[in-house]
Structure formats: structure tokens, C-alpha cells
Amino acid sequence: MARRRALYDGKAKTIYEGLEPGTVIQYFKDDATAFNAQKHAVISGKGVLNNRISAHLMTRLEMVGIPTHFLRSINMREQLVRQLEIIPVEVVVRNVAAGSLSKRLGIKEGAPLPMPIIEYYYKNDALGDPMISESHIVSFDWADPYELEEIVSLSWRVNDFLSGLFTGIGLRLIDFKLEFGRLWDDDGNLYLMLADEISPDNCRLWDATTDEKLDKDRFRHDLGDLIEGYQTIAEKMGLIPKGGIIQGGNIDEQLAASLAEIENEMAQGRRPRSILKMPPRKH
Ligand code: AIR
Ligand code: ASP
Prior knowledge:
This protein is α+β, with helices and mostly antiparallel strands. The protein has helices at residues 46-63, 99-105, 134-139, 145-167, 217-220, 226-236, 253-267, and strands at residues 6-9, 13-17, 23-28, 31-34, 39-42, 70-75, 78-82, 85-86, 89-96, 112-122, 131-132, 171-178, 180-184, 190-194, 203-207, 246-247, 250-251.
């Protein structure tokens, strides 16, 4: 594996050339960053947990007909995904006030929102991912109106599904961030799919009874041990045994590797579907 070509080195993941054409490997690093990478740490085991959690959530979303880039887990830190053209827009869905919404509008953290809110940010580190509107997205052709409509409708469906899933295991889904990408088939059909990852790095998840924060806010605001929070989430999801797989920075690698197999069995037999029928875009 050492001679693989890295295509992109991100803050929390490295993207390597895939095992077959049209695929790439997502390698989940232990690096944690916040505030546009001004704060950085390496937290042993974070990558393993995010890989597991994201593989599981993507698989569950596929099972209810939401197309994702996920193909299969490779090992405890890596997963095979489709190579997509990433749309440079971060979609944030919020159910409860927190984070930048609370700050920007002066709304108390934890206040339920009258209805869920969708926001867009331009994916650009140099600019600090500025907030944008639908007009910016269409005007600058980051996505056309058909794609945007699909992105919004998929985002609401993801929110409904994930909110239910987490409610069922005693967690509150406060907000989360999604990314989407495009894929064309040989006939010029466009497939829009969920990309990146869905993990406690990009979801706020609170304990439903205590409102304890279990996600990356622990790292952002020094609220406690990040691994403990992520393992609590993974345990409640039934992905790791009680007591966890990481103790004091040491990972039980054998156990971690065997767990990846479960997801692959679930993921078998899926076929991509074209969800948008329209003339190919010029690009
Ligand atoms: N997010 C946004 N950019 C990067 C990430 N990870 C996620 C956060 C949070 C949601 O989007 O993890 O779940 C809203 O973030 P914020 O900072 O705008 O309140
Ligand atoms: N990971 C991003 C950063 O490094 C944003 C965040 O999650 O806070 O800034």
C-alpha cells in the first residue's frame, strides 16, 4: 500500500488512487482541526471511529434510496468510494441552534429551531468557507438549478432519516454538514451523490437526556476527551462493543479490522441509479 499515489491531502482525510477506475480510497487520519485549521491535534483512533461511523451511515442511507459515493470498507482506516466531481458547496442542515448560527444570530445554544434550516457555505479554505446563498451557487455555476433542487431534497431526506436513527439510540442530531458530487455514465446521465463523510467531525450529536456534547465540539472548545465522545456514539450505534476499541490511545486493531466486514456484507449488491435525467452539462 506504501506506493499508492495520493490525489489529495485534506485536513482529516487523504484521498488515494482507487483499486479500479472510477474509484478512490478515503484514508481517515487521526488529525483534528478546527477554526480553519488554526487549531490542530492528532488524536489516536479518531480516524478508525470516523471510518466506521461514516461507512455505516452511508450504507444505511443507501438502503433508503439515498445515493452515496460509498462502495465498501477496505480496512479500519480506509474505504473505497466512487470518484466524483465534488460540488464546492458545504450544505449545513440545522435542527437546534448551536455553533455559528447561535453566534451569528444571538440564539441560545440548544434552542430548538421552529423548523429545520438549510445553509450553504463555499468550500474554500483560503476564504474560510464563507456563507453563501442559493443565488451565489447558481450564479457562479457551482451547481445548476436542477442539481440544487436535488441537493436540497436529498439534504432534507438525510436529515429526516438521521434524526430518526439518532433519536432511536438516545442521541439528538443538532446539525450536520454534507457534501455532494457528480458522476456521469457513458450515456451522459448525471448521478448526484452524497460524498465526503458523515461522522462526529461534521455532525453535532448530544446525549438526549443530559445534552452532553459527544462530537467534535469537544475538541473545538476543549469540552472533554474526544475519543470518549466518539466511542459513546459508535457504541450506541452498535458499531463497537461496550467499553470501546480504543483505550488510552491504543487501538484494538484486530477487533477494529473484524468490524469492517459487517458493513461490507450490508453493502453488497447495491447498484447505482441515475437520479437526474437531463442533457450532460458542459464541463
Ligand atoms: N461543519 C461545517 N464545516 C465543517 C464542519 N464540520 C459542520 C459542523 C457542524 C455544522 O457543520 O461540524 O455540525 C455547523 O457548523 P457551524 O460551525 O456552522 O455551526
Ligand atoms: N475542520 C474545519 C477546520 O479545520 C472546520 C471545523 O470542523 O471546525 O477549520
